[in-house]
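Good morning C.,

I know you're traveling, so I'll keep this short. The sequence:
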Amino acid sequence: MAHSSDSSSVWSSAFVHDSLADGVDVLADRLALGLASAVGVIALLFVLIAAYIGFQGGDVEVIPASVLYASSGASLLVVFAIVWVRLEPGERRAAFPVSRPSPVELGWTLAFVPLGVGGFVAGLEAAALAGFGLEPFAYDVTDPATLAAVVFGAVLLAPVVEEALYRGLLLGTLLGRGWSPVAAGLATIALFAALHYPHLGVAGVLAIAGWSIFPTILRLRFDSIVGPWLLHLLNNVYAYVLFVAFVS
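The tokens, ready to paste straight into the viewer:
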């Protein structure tokens, strides 16, 4: 059953790429894989962290950043590899649309960097009104092991794999099942934000939801995950490396 309305149709005609729904019908039966991959990244991360705690004899008060981000990167890599193998070539092309970004797309992407930060801050402010806060990231980026793990997990792998899984595969499966671009985009934003709860709490969920609006718009407008990946990459370089280096 299609999820549509007059208002979403008007929005779609103005902001959605003409070929967005082309070929996504092959993904209609891949919703379970899309959901499993999204949840699987978090589940595998928990397993790896639990294994680390077990190897340490259970006496661990704080997980080192090097362990956390290395485990996160490993989880992303393993889950994406499984998804890649499970998909047929035609399904991969539909799930992971890639094209050379035009100057217009690059312009939108760069403009969305500060807007994304604004969306993140707006989410934090909304959470603060409800009494929830977010602890800032605190680790030593001058430590080689920590920096290597952060670059591996948060800068290199998280942007490309998360965009491929959420705004690629998951959004594509919803479109393939007849969802409108607006409904599919909102559902993707909600799930992407919700799965940050274990690491960032309620405030982080609302902040991520505010930020996620912008890569989702890029995905719908230009029918490619390249713009969202670039925006995600620039955001994570700022949030996980530059910002931490200046405030810690």
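Safe travels,
E.
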